[in-house]
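We both want to read discrete structure tokens more fluently, so let's practise on a single case. Once you have written the record down, we can walk along the chain together.
***
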Amino acid sequence: MKSSITEYEVIFRNDRSLAPVRLISEELGADVGWDGGKREVSIKKGQDEIVLAIGKDKAYVNGRAIALDCPAVLYRDRTYVPLRFIAENLDATVDYAPRMAVPFERYYYGTAMPVSPGNTIVRYYPNIIIGQSPHS
């Protein structure tokens, strides 16, 4: 990823992770559009399109309505969307690495950021791992 999800805040709401739509979508090769009048974000990748309206419990994937258990929200001038819903509809996978026990054995170049055995920087919330789906 060009940007790291850890550079942005992740919102945890109703056991769901919401992340900035532009960060996730563009890193997965999609284009993002915003209609301020309708308060809608659109995500396009190839022939596929996802449309979410702020605060609404439905999203549209290629014109088909799909119920959301957590709607998109605006936070600090960014649109946050359900991470798993977006990633999976862009043919990617989402996994969570569990929190590690403290104290940590290694730290990132002498900083206070611990490094996991898998060479990822550990935060105080579980690491979120986004990758391309094996069938993409």
